[in-house]
Amino acid sequence: MQTIEEALNKLSRSRFRSSFHLTAKDRQYVRKKGMDTIRRHAGDFVAGKLAPADPEHDGRQTPMKGHPVFKAQHACACCCRGCLEKWYRVPRHQELTEEQQRKIVRLLMAWIEKEMKENA
In this structure, what are the phi and psi dihedrals at residue 68, rounded to the nearest 5 degrees? Predict the structure, then answer.
């Protein structure tokens, strides 16, 4: 099992994954809402659109923009079940456990926190 830092390092070597960054508007939104609210949003998005065994519109359920968590999901390869399987060996067609969901949210939040620090 890899650590969050190991996952972020691996993702940073992907041209596609490393192309995602928070915009000034995204960072402003995070500051306005606060990290606790962003964490709740991440948990809601993961539970509703990623955790089901066969999510509706899998592979297209995560927009590329519109919320900082969406960008984090793409940057962290947590945007669809196909990416979860490819990057983290999480099998498709099985509902994510609560622990798996918590790990995904922790990874997303680590990416957002890193983006906020790098662009402060």
Answer: -55, -35
- Cβ-contact 109, 42 below 8 angstroms: yes
- Look at residue 60 and give its three-state secondary structure: coil
Tokens of 13: 């070597």
Report the amino acid identity of residue 118.
E
Total domain count, the chain: 1
How far apart, in whole angstroms, are the C-alpha atoms of residue 26 and residue 15?
A: 21
**Domain membership of residue 114 as a residue range:** 4-118
Separation of alpha carbons 45 and 49, rounded Å: 6
pLDDT mean by block of 10 residues, the chain; 120 residues = 91 96 96 98 97 91 93 97 96 96 98 90
Category of 77 on φ-ψ map: left (φ > 0), alpha (ψ -120 to 50) or beta: left
